[in-house]
Amino acid sequence: MAVVFITGIDTGIGKTVATGLLGRFLLKKGIRAITQKMVQTGSHGISGDIIIHRKIMGMELTGEDRDGTTSPYNLSFPASPHLSAKMEAIAIDPAVISRATKSLETKYGVVLLEGAGGIFVPLNGDMAIIDYVDLMKYPVIIVTTSRLGSINHTLMTMKTVLGRGLEIAGLIYNTYPAVTREIEEDSADVISSFMKQWGIQGPLVKIPGLEQDYKNCPDLDFSGIFTGDFFGAEK
Length: 235
Fold this sequence. Notes:
about 35% helix; about 240 residues; single chain; alpha/beta; 6-stranded parallel sheet; globular
């Protein structure tokens, strides 16, 4: 069984869509995969991102979605996790997140754990997301984009993750919203070049923008990310 962490180079970068597409791919491969959102802000009831995951994956909400296991912190104030928690007079406890993930691991072959914002977003006064991922030693998938500024943000995120000695399983290149062809192609080329220089074995996989109803989602090939032991995961 495996847990993979999905982060982005910034907020609003397409992590939720990417996570759903990754889950869809694994399900099509016969892997019992589930997604989890470590902290959801700006949401009431069942996590909004989890609902999107399920639509993209083509599956109904699960019991773990309804009891909060797939979103152990669901906070109403739309802000960074530490501030959203402060607004509700609580502090985010990393142990609560890890217990929820471990519970999912007992039932599913792969858990896709989506972060909140970028890799240095604070969870509480003592820990940023990168600290938690480092503690758990999860392999990381980075979601980037073709928008202006993405090269800088992507390289900094990659360097940060590698600097902690963590594995980067691959990058997902979100081509929405559209930019000029020259920028889209050049940014992908630059990022791919640095991936090779820095010894990242995983691929850079492009994903398209999706309609908001998430119907007729494409079946994309993420096999370059999920190699080896991943396909030996319990189904």
